Amino acid sequence: MAKNLRVHELAKELGMTNAETVDLCEKLGVPVKSHSSSLNEAYSDMVRRRAERDGLTRDEQPAEPEPEKKPAKKAAAKKAAPAKKTAAKKAAPVKKAAAKKAAPAEPGKKIGERK
């Protein structure tokens, strides 16, 4: 029975990064989508031989580069936005209170007119 090998396992075996191994697979026409894709024995042998022939193998697998995180700007914007809304909500009841005081005027008298 043929043994299936994951791309990331083959990358570890060859001392390559996952991205390098996926790129090599795509270059060879091997149908992979990510480092978690499975390779049958024939494909894994083909990739292994090509990597050794091109001198891409290393003794140890290098660390994968970490993607840069940029959510801090979004978090700051989210915190600032609710503060504006709460200020608007606080200002709105003051206007309503002023309108309530002015509304019950006696009929026939103008608002602000003294007795």
Report the count of strand segments: 2
Radius of gyration: 34 Å
Please identify, by name, the CATH architecture of the largest domain: Orthogonal Bundle
> According to CATH, what is the class of the largest domain?
Mainly Alpha
Query: Helix amount, in percent?
Result: 55-70%
What global shape is seen? rod-shaped
Low-confidence stretches: none
CATH-derived topology of the largest domain: Arc Repressor Mutant, subunit A
Give the assembly state of these chains.
Answer: single chain
Q: Summarize the biggest pleated sheet.
A: 2 strands, antiparallel
Give the terminus-to-terminus CA distance: 104 Å
* Number of helical stretches of at least 4 residues: 4
Q: In brief, what are we looking at here?
A:
The protein has helices at residues 7-14, 18-28, 41-54, 71-102, and strands at residues 5-6, 38-39. It is mostly helical.
